[in-house]
């Protein structure tokens, strides 16, 4: 089984989650992790499962303006945030917009603040919707992984991400 994990990340948390998901998937499949900005080079038809995720910005997927805002926030004198090298590259929104019609299975995730979804929103819901519109079958509910107020992953979230990755492989196998 070949699995592609596509992620976008400003401060590294979603990348860490993507890598943890891949670690879980690795136990039962071959997995490749790529940044959304590089995902256009991938032939999605060669993958049995595509997993896509990004940070929640303004209740949904990031856009150029929010990514710029994220970089500016990290440049504030009192900030402890470190920006990923490709933070202002195209993100998951732009990659999804570039998809033609697709087939196959997919799943969506995000990172967001810990709190009621009503207040935080979650990018994974929009990502899942766009994957479905492109023609993918969603094999799992959209999943969120949580950061704290300092934008650090909460304890146990990487392990939960690995477990989610393992569960995707199991779900995929049970369907075939
Ligand atoms: C411009 C901007 C807008 C944000 N808006 C939200 C939001 O609406 N809801 C939320 O839960 N988190 C929001 N966040 C927090 C991000 O979800 C958080 O920074 C992200 O999960 C960290 O992932 P990363 O390290 O991969 O960038 C926002 C962050 C930024 C920079």
Question: In terms of topology, how is this protein built?
Answer:
Blueprint: E1 2-7, H1 13-26, E2 30-35, E3 49-55, H2 64-75, H3 92-98, E4 105-113, H4 117-120, H5 123-134, E5 137-138, E6 143-147, H6 157-175
Parallel strand pairs: 1-2, 1-3, 3-4, 4-5, 4-6
Bound molecules: flavin mononucleotide (FMN).
Flavin mononucleotide binds next to helix 1, helix 2 and strand 4.
Q: What is the structure about, briefly put?
A:
The chain is α/β, with parallel strands linked by helices and 176 residues long. It contains six helices and six strands; from the N terminus they run E-H-E-E-H-H-E-H-H-E-E-H. The protein has a single domain, classed as Flavodoxin domain (Rossmann fold).
Task: Tell me what you see in this structure.
There is one protein chain. The chain is globular and about 50 Å long. 43% of the residues are buried. Helix 1 links the parallel strand 1 and strand 2 (30-35). The mean pLDDT is 97. It is built from six helices and six strands, in the order E-H-E-E-H-H-E-H-H-E-E-H. The longest helix is centred in the last third of the chain and has 19 residues, at 157-175. Helix 1 packs across helix 6 and helix 3 (92-98) runs parallel beside helix 5. Strands 1, 2, 3, 4, 5 and 6 form a six-stranded parallel β-sheet that branches. The chain has one domain: Flavodoxin domain (Rossmann fold, 3-Layer(aba) Sandwich). With 176 residues, the chain is of the alpha/beta class. The structure holds flavin mononucleotide. Residues 9-14, 55-59, 66, 69-70, 73, 111-113, 120-121, 147, 151 line the site of flavin mononucleotide. Flavin mononucleotide (FMN) binds at residues 9-14, 55-59, 66, 69-70, 73, 111-113, 120-121, 147, 151.
